[in-house]
Amino acid sequence: MRNTAVLLGLAFVMWGCNTVPPTNVHQPMSVRPNPRNEAAPANGSIYQAGSSRTLFEDRRARYVGDTLTIVIAETTSASTKSSTNVNRAGNVSATVPTISGLPGKSLQGLTLSAQSSNTLAGKGDAAANNVFTGNIAVTVIEVLENGNLLVSGEKQVSIGHGTEYIRLSGVVNPYFISTANTISSANVADARIEYKETGAISEAQVMGWLARFFMTVLPF
Questions:
Q1: Residue 117, domain extent
Q2: Nearest-angstrom CA–CA distance, 70 and 138
Q3: What domain count does the chain have?
Q4: Sheet arrangement for strand 162-172
Q5: Is 92 inside a domain boundary?
Q6: Which residues neighbour 79 within 8 Å (Cβ) at sequence distance 6 or greater?
Q7: In this structure, is residue 117 part of a structural domain?
């Protein structure tokens, strides 16, 4: 019984180490091309119907299953600065006049004064700079009614015991695709670009679930 529990624990740990990080890109990330119903002429000594292209047709992607290269060149920079200054001061004074025919004559000539002052000063600065460059080949997963292409793709790079996942999806206007079948990520609409990794290095940067629990419920 103990050995079974140990094996189950090890399996759970190994499963957690190999978990693929979740994604928000459009699904699926790759599809097979649809069969075309066009009547192809018979093969000849030079012409092969299975690998032919129209004489005046280029290699740019236009059908489901075609691939194109997206040049990722994302540079974002944002900064904000705020400053607040609030001052409030008050002064109150009172003097007891001459009292006649009333009790409290011992308070004659007594002067009362009160002062208050409140000051609030606050400053805040925030800045963010991100640079993401690279190339990724994506697949056309859908041709929209207006001719735009919905593309999606993933690249996995395993180095040592870690794996890097580069994912991208979005809508591409065919007119922006160059003759080399490439397009800049700046021309991709509804772009979803991800760079995630798994392995010992990424796990060391994540807070444990028990620590996250106490960080959530503790009031201090």
A1: 81-125
A2: 7
A3: 1
A4: 182-184, 67-95, 111-143, 149-159, 162-172, 188-198
A5: yes
A6: 125, 126, 127, 128
A7: yes
